[in-house]
Amino acid sequence: VLHAWQTGATLVLADCDRQVLVELLNCVIANGIALPYGIPDLRKMKSSDSKTSGVIANLEPGDYNDLNAMLEDSAIRTYQHRL
């Protein structure tokens, strides 16, 4: 989160990681904890929110050979470029 904030990068999170940030922010607010940097307020943002970029495919290659085959596939390369 800090690196994304410092560099202006897009933060890509699994929904479970988004929920951790939501719970952490709730705790910070409830206890008035001062932080050295901000935490994005994701409490109202759901994974299907129009402000999100969409779902990122979890292609889960089984092994190194699967990964190499995926990287050589033109559809995967197009998806990689778009992402």
In words, what does this structure look like?
The chain has helices at residues 2-7, 15-31, 64-72, 74-82. The chain is elongated and about 50 Å long. It contains four helices and no strands. The protein folds into two domains: 1-52, no CATH class; 54-83, no CATH class. The protein is an all-alpha fold and 83 residues long.
Distance between the termini: 19 Å
Element string (H = helix, E = strand): HHHH
Overall shape: it is elongated
- Classify the beta-strand content into a percent band: under 5%
Keywords for this structure?
mainly alpha; elongated; 4 helices; 83 residues; 2 domains
Brief synopsis:
The chain has 83 residues and is mainly alpha-helical. Helix content is 49%, strand content 0%.
Topology:
Elements: H1 2-7, H2 15-31, H3 64-72, H4 74-82
